[in-house]
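Escalation from tier 1.

The customer reports that the assembly of two entities below gives different C-alpha cells on two consecutive runs. Tier 1 could not reproduce it. I'm attaching the input and our single run for tier 2 to review.
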Amino acid sequence: MAVLTVKDLYKTFGAGTPRANRVLDNISFDVRGQTFVSIVGPSGCGKSTLLNIISGVETHTSGQISVTSDDGKPARMGYVFQDPRLLPWRSVRKNMLYVQDQADDETNRRVDKYLDMVGLGKHGDFWPGQLSGGMQQRVGIARAFAVEPDLLIMDEPFSHLDAITARALREQLQDIWSQSKKTVVFVTHDVVEAVELSDRIIVLQPGGKIFEDITIDLPRPRRQTDPAVATLQAEVLARLERMKGMAPQVSAAP
Amino acid sequence: MSNPVIEAPPTAPAVTWQEGEQLARRASSRRRAKRLVLLAAGWVAMLLVWNVAAYYLPAGVLPSPLEVLIVMWEIVASGAFAANFFASVGKTFVGFLVAIAVGAPIGYLMGRYTYWRAFFHDGVTVAGTIPALTYAVLSLIIFGISDLGPILSVALVSVPYIAINVAEGVRGVDQSLVKMSQAFGRSPQQIRRDVFIPTLVPYIFAAIRMSFAVAWKVEALTEVFGGTNGVGFQIRSEYQLFNIDGVLAWMCLFIVFMLIIERLVLRQFENRVLAWRPEERVGR
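Tier 1 run:
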C-alpha cells in the first residue's frame, strides 16, 4: 500500500489574478513503504511548495494528496528542517520528548535508542547551545526518527553544514535508515547527494512538471568514495544536462 | 623544495601550553587583585570625605560615619530594622506583581498585534518618562496615608518597563520554532508554554532588574510622604525629631540591603532560571 499518493496535483499562486503563477503542473506519483525518495530540482521548480502541500502547511489548487498509515490510524509525520530548530531552553533529551505524544518508559527508551544511533547517547542532558551545528542537526534527525513516523519529510537537512560534516551525516543517515526503514521524502537541490541516499529520484523541472523519475538500484551502504556511486552520479547529472535550456540557473551540482 | 616553516616568535611568553595557561591564570588573578584594591580604595575615600566633612561642618548637621554605624547597629539590634525593611520590601514586591499583571498583557498585545501597538505605544512611552516623584505624589492623593500608596507608585513606575520588555520578547519569538512545533502537531497551549513563555522570561528579568533599581527608591519616597510603616516612614520620623544620625542610619541600611537583593538574590535567581543561555554559562 502506498504511504504517500499524489495525483494530478496543481498549484497556482494568485489564481484568477493577472499575476497567476503556476508552480506545480500535473504532478502524480506514489511512494510506497520503506522507500527513500528524493525530490530534486533547481531553485524555483516548486519542490518546497510540494513539500509544504504534503505536510499540510500549504493548500493545493486541484488534485489529490493523501498520506496513510499501516494501521489505519492518522498518519504520523516526522520533519527534519534545514536548520536544527531545537528549543534552546530544553535539554537535548527533553527536546526529543517535546514532540512525543506520550511520556511513558517505552517512549524514553525509543528516544535514547535514536540518540545512541546518531552518536549522542552521552549528550542527552546537554543544552543545544553546547553542541556544534552538526551535532544539533543530528539531534534534529534523531527527533524526527523517534516519533516513528509513517512518513518522514526532510527539507535540505544538510545544506547549511560544511562539506565534511554533511558527508558524515549522510553516511549516518543511511545507517539509521537501513535499520529503521522509514518512508522518507527527501528534498534537495544536490543530485550527487540524492544518488547517494535514495532508492528513487523524482526530478522536477522549472515550471513544476516532473522531468524524470529515476530508480537508483545500488547496494547499501553507499559511500561517496565508491566508484559505482560516482559512475551513477555522473550518469544522472548527464541526463539532467538537457534541463539546462529550461532555466537560467540549474544548480544541480553542489 | 623545502616546506615553509612558520616559526614561533622568538620572545614566546611560554614554551608549553601548561606554562601558557599558568601565565594566563596569574595575569587574571593579578587583574582581580587590582580591581579589589581599587574597590576598597573607593570605599575608604568616600568614608574619608564624609568624615572630614562631618568634622568641619557645624555640630549636629552631619554625624560622622562611626556615629551612624553605631545607630545602624542599634536599629538592627532592636529588631526595628527587620520589621520595617520587610514591610518596605513586601510593598515593593506586591507593586511588582501588580505591574506584571498589568504590564505583561499590554506588552503581549503590543508585541503581537501592530494595531494594539499603535494604541499603547505613546501612552507607555509617556508613562515611562514621567518623573517617579510625580507617581509618588499621585499615589498619595489617590490613597492617602496607607500601604496602598507605595504599592501603587511602584506599580506605576514599573508598568512601562515591563510592557516594553514583554513587547520586545513577544516580537523576539522564533517563528521557525513555532512552525516546527506545529509541524510535529503540538497544541497551541503547548506552544505557548514551551516556546512563548521561555522566550519571554529573559525579557521579564531584564524588566524587573531595570525597574527594581527605580522602584525601591520610589517606594521609600512614597513612604516618606505618606507611609504608616516601612523604611521611608522611619526616615521621616527621625527627620521630624531632627535626628540626622537616624535618617542616615536608616538610609544606609536600606541601600545596603536593597543592593544585596538587586545584585545577589535577583541575579542568582536569574542565573538559575536561564542556565540554558550560552552567555550565562561563560561566567562559571
